[in-house]
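not sure who needs this but someone in the group chat was asking about biotin--[biotin carboxyl-carrier protein] ligase from Isosphaera pallida so here u go. i didnt clean anything up, its just raw.
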Amino acid sequence: MIPSNPAVPPQPDLHNHPRPALEATPSCSWLGASIDLREVDSTNAFIRRLLEGDHQGLWPLPVAVWTGRQRAGKGRGTNFWWSDAGTLTFTVALDPAAQRLRLDHLPRLALACAVAIVDVVEPLAPQARWTIRWPNDVEANNLKVAGILPERFATPCGDRLALGVGLNVSTNWNHAPESVRRMAASVESIRGTVLADQERRDLASRLLERLVARLTQLADDHPDLAERWDQLDQLKGNRVRIRQGERVLEGVGGGIDPTGALRLLTADGSIQSIVGGVVERNPPHG
Ligand SMILES: O=C(O)CCCC[C@@H]1SC[C@@H]2NC(=O)N[C@@H]21
């Protein structure tokens, strides 16, 4: 089906021939364990049960959970996350101490992961304009290609982090809700052609590889990481409206600072550091 947003060119039909499934058990020495589920409610919810269950201390973190289908995919806040088997869907559970991550790194976790995703997808569709939509989306040509859901769990073994990723690789939008179709795209629809079988096979392990590299930069407070997310910032120079519960903040995006906060340049000339909230799509002009 063609998206109804007139600004969005029709997405090519890339789904009429059989292709290998997305590789969901990549070999990666960084992972202590990899669990591949045909179907689950949500990989983040599964990880939470794993980390809070009886055998919590026995799991060799990092653990990744992969699935071809989520019945109740979670987005940020109360949002749901729609996907199909063409979406690379996984959650990695981390022990922050083992990754040398401190509390103040946590707000930057999704950004580091977003940069890792761009590292992998940009070479597959280099003609597109790849951006990070603060705080946790990866977009191409202003269409959402990946969402990231970081969560923190307090367990008897200590704090644990879950990093949930949904990356639309070859998603078939025919059965997606209209609201999703209007704003989403896949790597293949952005590229305009299907990926080669080998590119599909390599995607998950490439992504893990880049994730490890970017998490290491985060732990080291390496300036390249912050420089990269600032370069990729979609909101920079654009009108932004952010909802924080009942509160609405308006201004112009002034970049993402090294702590991961969004700088908002407001009409009264001040700069506000925003650490949370929901960024509205299509804020009114004015
Ligand atoms: O865009 C968002 O608001 C975040 C979407 C995150 C989706 C991923 S898919 C894997 C993991 N499991 C979930 O239930 N959600 C995350």
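also The chain has two domains: 21-231, 239-279. if thats useful
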